[in-house]
Amino acid sequence: MLQKQSDTCIVLLQNVSRKIRTCMLANHVSEHGCCCNL
Questions:
Q1: Which residues does 14 contact at the CB level (< 8 Å), separation at least 6?
Q2: Can you tell me the distance from the alpha carbon of 5 to that of 20, in angstroms, rounded to the nearest whole number?
Q3: So which domain of life are we looking at (predicted)?
Q4: Please, are residues 28 and 37 in contact by the beta-carbon 8 Å criterion?
Q5: pTM passes above 0.70
Q6: Over the stretch 23-34, which tens digit does the pLDDT of each residue have?
Q7: Rounded to an integer, what distance in angstroms lies between the CA atom of residue 21 and that of residue 4?
Q8: In this structure, are residues 12 and 35 in contact, taking their beta carbons and an 8 Å threshold?
Q9: Residue 28 — φ and ψ, nearest 5°?
C-alpha cells in the first residue's frame, strides 16, 4: 500500500516541482497537498 502512496506523491510532486525539495525534506503534506510519506 505504501507504493500506491508513493505514486500519488510523485504525480503531485511533478505538478509542484518547485516544492519538490521542501516536500521531500519535510516528508509530509505540502501546501499543494503532496503527500511525501515514504
A1: none
A2: 15
A3: Eukaryota
A4: yes
A5: no
A6: 555 555 555 555
A7: 20
A8: yes
A9: -155, -175
